[in-house]
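A.,

Following up on our hallway conversation. Structure tokens first:
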């Protein structure tokens, strides 16, 4: 399967798209992409988005998609790095106390406790949760349950779906309408 990087870049970095609306804009147009382009674009759109907590249901649904070619979510080096991990892996996540109590965790974790501590204490761009108390939580997980290792920002980020959405397509359809209305409103306010 071929990937057209220009097509993906035009989609996620085009006019009116910024780090706050990049993810829903990508998802709005994801049905026009083949499977390889979807996973490649999803990784880039997610990594280059801010305040992803706002889109958390859409994010979980997107990473739970029943599309083929998931290897395109990672670079060759990231695939090798994931394969080198032990059978059981300790992962960390900076999160709100509320998230920890709920057990409904986001998908972004890290292999580095210091990175998780940074996201708990200092990360300034999660506007939806900046006022809430935060902690670092760890889990021991089976390497096979890690969807991806993303290291483009040197954060040793892993995508871990504790309980993948079984109805990912329905979740995307349900949430995309609300999120796209918000993103379109956001876009219209600047142009």
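Then the amino acids I'd put at each of the 191 positions:
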């Amino acid at each position: 399967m071929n990937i057209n990087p220009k097509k993906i870049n035009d989609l996620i970095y085009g006019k009116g798209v910024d780090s706050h609306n990049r993810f829903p804009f990508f998802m709005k147009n994801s049905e026009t992409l083949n499977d390889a382009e979807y996973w490649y674009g999803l990784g880039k759109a997610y990594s280059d988005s801010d305040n992803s907590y706002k889109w958390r249901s859409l994010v979980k649904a997107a990473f739970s998609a029943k599309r083929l070619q998931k290897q395109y979510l990672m670079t060759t080096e990231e695939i090798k790095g994931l394969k080198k991990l032990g059978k059981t892996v300790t992962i960390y996540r900076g999160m709100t106390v509320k998230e920890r109590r709920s057990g409904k965790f986001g998908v972004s974790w890290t292999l580095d406790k210091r990175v998780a501590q940074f996201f708990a204490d200092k990360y300034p761009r999660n506007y939806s949760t900046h006022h809430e108390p935060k902690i670092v939580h760890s889990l021991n997980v089976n390497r096979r349950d890690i969807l991806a290792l993303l290291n483009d920002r040197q954060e040793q980020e892993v995508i871990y779906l504790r309980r993948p959405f079984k109805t990912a397509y329905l979740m995307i359809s349900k949430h995309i309408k609300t999120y796209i209305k918000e993103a379109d409103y956001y876009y219209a306010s600047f142009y």
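Residues 164-173, 179-191 have pLDDT under 50 and may be disordered. Curious whether your intuition agrees with the design.

B.
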